[in-house]
Amino acid sequence: MQSYQLVIRVSEPVSLTVGKLGVFEFPVGEYIYTGSAKRHLEARIRRHLRTTKTLKWHIDYLLAHPAVAVVDVIRSTVPECELNQQTAGEILIPRFGASDCRSGCISHLKYRK
Questions:
Q1: Positions of E strands within 11-105
Q2: Number of structural domains, the chain?
């Protein structure tokens, strides 16, 4: 399993519905999203970077907003949850990207202002 982090910039306040999680406010700033892929890591990253896609994962809803952009991608061999837990940041949305997490992660999206 390979993991990655998307460094995301939100350029204006965003309010949006994130799948079944509900409606959330995303303040301006930098966010770090941690994810993984069992195989085809580069295809997963390319999918995240596309502007047109079916909204499937929590991160898709955020990335679809015009005020949101991925500014960097960090690839890692550290397991997804371990990498996420090592990453500093504030949790604004519990369960974001972590609804199936079995490692105790509260969220896989962190706000870094």
A1: 14-18, 22-26, 29-37, 68-76
A2: 1
